[in-house]
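Late entry, written up from scratch paper. The run itself happened at the end of the previous shift, but nothing got recorded in the book at the time, so transcribing now.
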Amino acid sequence: MTPRVLIAQFMHETNTFSKLKTTLDDYRRRWLIEGDEIVPRFKGTRNEVGGYIDQAAKFGWEPVYAVAANATPSGMLTRETWETIRDSIVGTARMAGKLDAVCLSLHGAMVTETEDDAEGALLEALRGVIGPDVPMVATLDLHANATLRMARNVNALVSFRTYPHIDGYDRAVQAAALVQEALEGRKTPRCLLSQPAMLEGADHGRTTQPGVMRDLLARADEYEKEPGINVVSIQVGFTWSDIPYTGPSIAVSYEPPAEVRAREIARSMIDEMWRRRDEMSADYRSVADGVSAARARRDEGDKVGPLVIADGTDNPGGGGYNDTTPVLQALLDAGIRNAAVGTIYDPGTVQQAMAAGVGAEIDVDLGGHTDETMGRPVRARALVKMLSDGVFRNDGPMNAGVESNMGPTAVLRIEGIDVVTISNRIQTTDLQVFLSQGIDPRAKDVLVVKSVQHFRAAYAPIAREIVLVDSGGICSPDISRLKFTKLRRPIWPLDGVNDPYAGTRPA
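Output as recorded:
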């Protein structure tokens, strides 16, 4: 008989320190797609859903599509948002009758008004519908705050192995292959999880240079070659989440005879992560340093392309408000020209520009509307250079082929700086953020991107230099600014912890 496999996506990276709740409209702004409409949206793309679509065809499954839901990171999901999408997935499973397997695309760091461990709750609810013996796998972002509840209810957690995340498709392929082996009776996978007393670890998962994360991934690759070991996943956690489970973890999918070995592997990986816990490669600099780099005379020798200033602490990919202004204001004050900013979230100013029309000059109070302690609005005279619907298709490498939507968008020129002003918050990960708006990023002397790491996949190849700045946004790397009330304690580096298993139970 043809295997019937439920396929669904429910993703959100929740910054519980954000004042902005996440609503159904936030999902609709990115994507909230039901049933068979998932296929034309994602077939041929390089994300997890595209991977599951291709593997269903390869293995001859009968896919049962529930929902594909993904919203830009922000604050907690409202109860309505959580229950609506959860019930859509669980309801599809219940109405489908007999299911032979479930393949999910999750993030692993979703928090709602009623659930600190939303993915664990979703997986538990699905397990209650499909029963204990139906294979169920989930891909996770490597910044997942994974939990024992998640691991208890799946046969494997298959996490991204790149940061920037350019391997979502590949992880779905890996997860689906394991499901196929289970359906053929060749494997009976189980999953365990170990989480140390660490809030941060493995250099936040950075893989663009040699270091602890790449070394851990190499070990995971070797472990997966051992008999009985299916998947070894490293989750480095998402720090900006005040829940008991925040922080790194190791998930191992194994065959029952290899359970002891799986526990040894998890402990070995945790021990190595702990030993190298102080290794951090992110070099956050001041906004003034970014401006100094922009002022520096360009070397026309081997240094070509734009200076890229990454406004990492206002990263919408981590829940940043996407409208802080210190970097833009500093560039204006310094008289920097031939620059472009991608992006500033300000739907009110976009509407003002649309009412005026292309070619008009308008007085703007741009950005700085969510929290003025992170930069007041930029008051300026702006030329409306372009207006659009803000929709583009990613070139990649990250999410190649996937449609993105910045909402109604205006390109405003302020004293020689082109500002892509948007109505939907979006992380700057793709060159199309500029190209789709008539801006050639390669021709600019300076680019400002609202991102902390993902931008590197597309922008590092064109940059003459990259400067990562701390502009004081909500995603600051200074964890002393974060007021945790639910986080398990003791925990490194907030407390005097000398043992990675202090207060925890190793796998």
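The first helix runs from residue 24 to 30.
(Scratch paper discarded after transcription.)
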